[in-house]
Amino acid sequence: MRKKTALLLSTVFCVVFLFPQCSKENENKHVSIEIAKQFGLAYAPIQIMEDLKLLEKRVPEADISWIQLSNTAAIREAMLGKGVDIGFMGIPPFLIGLDKGMEWKLFTGLSEMPVGLVTWREDIVSLKDFSEKEKIALPQPGSIQHILLSMAAGKILGDTAFFDNSLITMSHPDGMNALLTRTDVTAHFTSPPYLMQELDIPGMHLVLTGKEAVGSSFTFIAGSVTDKFSQKYPEIVNKIKEALQEAISFIKQEPGESVRILSEAYGIEEEDLRKYFSWEGIVYTEEITGLSSFTDFMYKQKYIDHPFEDLNQVLFQYEN
Fold it and tell me: Would you put residue 24 in left (φ > 0), alpha (ψ -120 to 50) or beta?
């Protein structure tokens, strides 16, 4: 009788005095987390996090799904369709979605990357050497590559829309293959590892870098979360960020093991990966940089209709 009474009192104590904690634990036992990513060295910490199960260690009661999608547009559609909770992409496509009414926020940076415009044409050494007839491959209009090209066109040519009719939407692998044929595509605006692979080929050279376009370093890939998920599970969003921070630290402290994991996941030789990681400009960090540069430019050039001067509209802030 005394044992039953003690058990009953313990249950009542949990319900009455610890209700928030108890309810959170119970809630998390039934949560599903769907995370969308893309391929490339810019997403390396996510691959490390997945392979080492760093998030599963922090939220063992959750059901975690990792989804590989081909481009930012697919991620945006998946998050809009309520199927994906977390997605990683460039700042410009995130801002376009936010401007159109998507209820989501940035919660972490992921990487800074050396990105650039590569061509096989010997006579093209600057944006000034392009005619309006040339074709440039990049992921899609509104992608970070498109916005970077527009920024550079404004600075160098005085016309941010100069290349808008020259763009061909292609995935990075397709863009590289098209560039190598040296027929339909004159240039490819791409990122690692495709940037390194293209520049390893004789006759290919760099015309423009992303840093030249912006004028400073910037976050290439950031993490976004739907408002519905972050409002219901703010502590889980924070744990995802913590897991990413651990993955970033692992890459820095265990470069050999990181290369082994990524080589297997990406199908790239370990020797090549070590060479790629030595490139200047590859930085993995949770800090978000360059946000105001993109917001100001995109608002002035009417890519977005809202200036988003209030960062509370853009950034998720975890309050413990």
Answer: alpha
